[in-house]
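Obj: model holo form, ligand = FE2/S2 (inorganic) cluster.
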Amino acid sequence: MPKQHTAMYKELIDKLRYQKSLSKDEYLKLIKNREDISEYLFKNAREVCESIYGKDIYIRGLIEFTNYCKNDCLYCGIRRSNKEAQRYRLTQEEILSCAKQGYNLGFRTFVLQGGEDNFYTDEKMEKIIKSIKTKYPDCAITLSMGERSFESYQRLKIAGADRYLLRHETISKSHYEKIHPKQMNFENRIKCLQNLKKLGYQVGCGFMVGSPYQTEENLAEEMIFLKQFNPQMVGIGPFISHKDTPFKNEKSGNVELTLFMLGLIRLTLPNVLLPATTALGTMDLLGREKGIKAGANVLMPNLSPVTVRKKYMLYDNKICTGDESAECLECLKKRVGTTGRTIVVDRGDYKTN
Ligand code: 5AD
Ligand code: FES
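Output (holo structure tokens):
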């Protein structure tokens, strides 16, 4: 790229840093011309992140408590139609035992993640949430179990849930419809996110990078939506094809573009909690380290029992499915160390400044 163009795009990054937003066209320009400016973006993103969160990296203990799912997302390995998936559900006791191990390792946030599984009624979830909260009142509970009614979200909030992750997957309705079956509805997904916010959850949304049919313009639209919705967390990761889904032959997303999006998100929402995801670590051995260097400040290692880990295969070749939680944490501590940051024992709440 000619030097004067690089200078122009760097100025656009400066503008984003100070104004904390750009127009869709400006985001698109940066995304299209990312090659020579990504290091400059990452440096700015790291500075902004450290000015708010210091050197701390937060960890969330992920408990994948069910891989039954009534939905049929075309990209997802635990979709209903995948007859190859071996299904499992964890009992309340098994979930509590994961939390206990996690607590002893220093986790102060537990993420209960699962497919959309009607087996886990509001009553069952209330019991599970209350039992964790009673034993570990100093911990935050994050739920990630898909679309439910306003009343259901409300009951779970009252039972003690603090946060909710529901990736919107894409903000383009037409794109949403290309990667989901007709039974799923884009408007309802967004409505759910709004309901969660209304109920006082700390809310996380997010999208895949490089999912089939996604365009760079779609990614610019993601940035406009994020600025407007202003979530406390944003989960993004590369799309990775799964062999037993309709998208088995689709190209997987790329790491370099995911990192660039992380940097843009950090400058747009300076205080946001931003994980370097397992999908990023799956596509690139050093993906999570690179994510931290691009502006991420959260890691979500697996606390699920080793016996079920290989069954929660959202995509092919998922990492960390053979290790005990303690091994995962040791590995992450070393990895985070190489970035000059430190994993802390902390709930890691959203900082409002
Ligand atoms: N590749 C990458 N991410 C995926 N997810 C589901 N399937 C895939 C895939 N094939 C992500 C979705 C979902 C989250 C739990 O995992 O974004 O919200
Ligand atoms: Fe379960 Fe998409 S396949 S929510």
